[in-house]
Amino acid sequence: MTFKIANRASELIGGTSILKIESLSKLAGSDIFVKCEYENPGGSIKDRAALQMTEDALACGALKEGMTIVEGTAGNTGIGLAVVGKSLGFPVLVVMPRGQAHEKERMIGLFGAELRLVDPCPFKDPNHFYHTAKRIADEESNRYWWANQFENTSNYKAHYQNTGPEIWQQLPKLDCLVSVAGTGGTISGTSQFLKEKKPRIQVVLVDPDGSGLKSYVDTGAFASSGSSFTEGIGIMRLTQNFAAAKVDQAVNFSDQDILTISRFVRDEDGIVLGSSSALNVCAAFHNAYKGQKSRCILTFACDLGERSYSKLYDGDFLKSKGLDENRNMDQMLGSW
């Protein structure tokens, strides 16, 4: 066994473990694994894109000494950039919509980044967090470098060059990869690499209510219904990063299913999932339960449940959304 010895926190990004979810694997008749992205120093899979984008900007001269990194984010990319920025000596300004989990707001500050909250609004509104971050960089281009995680394909590159090869080395028997998408970098980079190695690997996109990616995969047009308490995933436009994804199937699950699977895995396996991770695991379990048996299925534990405490693990919040914490697995399976 080998262990990393690093000189700075950013050097610890990547090389995450894979964990089998025994309870769901037994119930479904196939092996279901999660890649434990919460092991990254910033606590999420977004550390990978944050590091790659920053390193590539330094290499091409877009990011120079004395500049500040600015990005619009629902939280985890901002935390990742705060870790990377602090490690490499750059201040970070995070623009974030109000209403995200308070835990993410606190983490951004704990890692030393500046947080600027804006009112949530549709993407077409110039005050959207994405446009606000871009405008800050455009108005003072010598002072700020905008990471632009949605369209910056260094995001995709992080997963094509690193996450995908890690998975291939760890699970060469892989039959199915399941992933949510926000920017699209994770599913694009990993699916591209893994299908080059093993074309028959099935890639499944899982989309929350309120997102249009499933509709886009199915019909070529964005359409959505409902809403979700998940954060940082789902989108209503095609990004440069998602455009490279090799997706075979798209599925959708409700917040109630996310809640039910999160409680089952916590109680049976001692794994506390965040909302995006729980959606991933729900889709992986569904694929295993409904599909051919004795397969190997992998998804991502994007971060830990502590970042979703004020929503996914808050009884009052769940009641306000009409969600039932006591709904059991038999009831969920019956609805499938």
Automatic annotation (TrEMBL):
CDD domains in UniProt: CBS_like
Gene Ontology biological process terms in this record: cysteine biosynthetic process from serine
InterPro entries referenced in this protein's UniProt entry, alphabetically: Cys_Synth/Cystath_Beta-Synth, P-phosphate_BS, Ser/Thr_deHydtase_PyrdxlP-BS, TrpB-like_PALP, TrpB-like_PALP_sf
SUPFAM superfamilies in UniProt: Tryptophan synthase beta subunit-like PLP-dependent enzymes
Key words of the record: Amino-acid biosynthesis, Cysteine biosynthesis, Pyridoxal phosphate, Transferase
Cofactor (UniProt): pyridoxal 5'-phosphate
Tryptophan synthase beta chain-like PALP domain span: 10-293
Record's protein name: Cysteine synthase
Pfam family, one: PALP
Originating species: Pseudobacteriovorax antillogorgiicola
Residues of the signal peptide: none
